[in-house]
Amino acid sequence: MTGQDARRRAVLSRREGRLATIAAGAVIVVIASIPGPSGAPSLFGWDKLDHLSAFAALALLARAGWPSAPRWITAGALFAYGIGIELLQGSPLVNRTASASDLAANAVGIVIGLALALWLGRVARTIRWLPLRR
To answer: What is the pLDDT of residue 56?
Structure first.
């Protein structure tokens, strides 16, 4: 493989992106289903940063796995996934609290992840046009 070919190869193949998205989603479900103390959720607590970063990572991985899918489909699927997690946390089996503010943090994370994927794609396309240094 020449240097030019290696440079043009995607960081993640579609298959790797899909597997990483599914694996990350499974880890998030496991973490979200660990029983915890029930209490009033905080609006600006550190757990919101957890939600935001998890869903930003999921969105970024989903774009790597399904790059031709419309962004609104990706966003809708991830938001529905977030609703499912909140329903799971609100069930008596998990003993956690479902929260609308968690859904809002998920949505912000999705937007950040999709924006980051768009920006990284533009950077990658720009770099392809740059001559290689020798």
So the answer is: 96
Please provide the size of the chain in residues: 134
Question: Number of structural domains, the chain?
Answer: 1
Domain membership of residue 97 (yes or no) is yes
CA distance 31 to 9: 33
CA distance 94 to 5: 49
pLDDT band at 95 (very low <50, low <70, confident <90, very high): confident
Contacts of 53 by beta carbon, 8 Å cutoff, 6+ apart? 109
pTM of the model: 0.80
Which range of residues forms the domain containing residue 21?
Answer: 3-129
**42 CB-near residues (< 8 Å, 6+ apart):** 48
